[in-house]
Amino acid sequence: ERYLHKTLLLHQEAAGFASFVSFYRVFACNYAIFIIVRFFKAFQAQPRLAIVTNTLASSLSDIGHFLVVLTLVIVSFAAAGMFLFGHRLLEFSDYSFAVNNCFMIMMGAFDFDELREEHPLMGALWFWAYFLFVSLILLNMALAIVMDVYARVSSDAADSDSMFTQAVKFVNRVWHRRDWVSYSKVLRKLAQLDESIKGLTIEKLCDAVPEMPPEQAIEFVQSGSELESAEAERGLNMTDALRMVSWTKDAVERIGNKLGILVDIIMHNRAKAKAAAPAKVAQPGGAPVVVSFTPRAQERLIKLEGRFERLETQAGEAVHEAVDSIRQMRAELAALEGAICGKAPAAKQRDPLGFAS
Description:
Largest sheet: 2 strands, antiparallel
Strand order of the largest sheet: 1-2
CATH architecture of the largest domain: Orthogonal Bundle
Mean pLDDT: 76
Radius of gyration: 38 Å
Shape: flat
Low-confidence stretches: 279-283, 344-357
CATH class of the largest domain: Mainly Alpha
């Protein structure tokens, strides 16, 4: 009896130790994954290393909505597969097994012959419907969503410093740490400057922070200029670029239509002014007699005709300048649209004013 009691205690301690080892393995696994996440967080300090995390963060909303659709499709096909193959195949005998098997089929791990053994026609229809819709369409849509955001994020990080350049700058800052002014102090000094001052030059920076060495001022202004240029030249994803091209083309067409209406109004007013000029009436046996208005009306007509002529001249010059600008803008838009869509430049067309574009 004492031996049995000791044996039971030994088994209990062994079971406790086995539970502790299992918990330790799970903890070590989760800790390794947590370290990877911490690495990704540290990559945010370097724009080129942060492309992956920024892409995932920017596409998280679209991916979330996409996963809702993908999940509904998978669970629906899993239910259909369980009813069709469940009484014969172990992979579809339970709903959780069916969902897991549908996911494996989506990844490319399947046995088509085994599915067709149950029902050749319905098995083939179920498989091809699921494979075409999920593996070929939905997965490519997910890839398109990610790549669309990746193109913009990588374009934003293209002009940033590389990891080695950033390391050299960091070593340079550490080397001049005793001589250079801390950036927090510089920011406090700059916050006290007048907001009406436009453009921060090296002289203005040295005047605002007198204790700053010229080398630090040069490095500070150059870094600020590079960041401003990078912010101004931020990339667009394919959707935003196509939307911008379409909006610009519509705006150019509206401008052309308005210019055409303006030309019609000017021509109509000119014809109206000429119609209001003194008329010549021919008599039966003599020379034509000029029918004139009163001197005051005649003077007003002459002034009005002069104004119309000047307006026509100015409008004609403006129209020609606008047409040239529109023609150039259309050529640039066609080149941009061709570069985005991978198409050849469109054939020449005529604009609303009748000029070749």
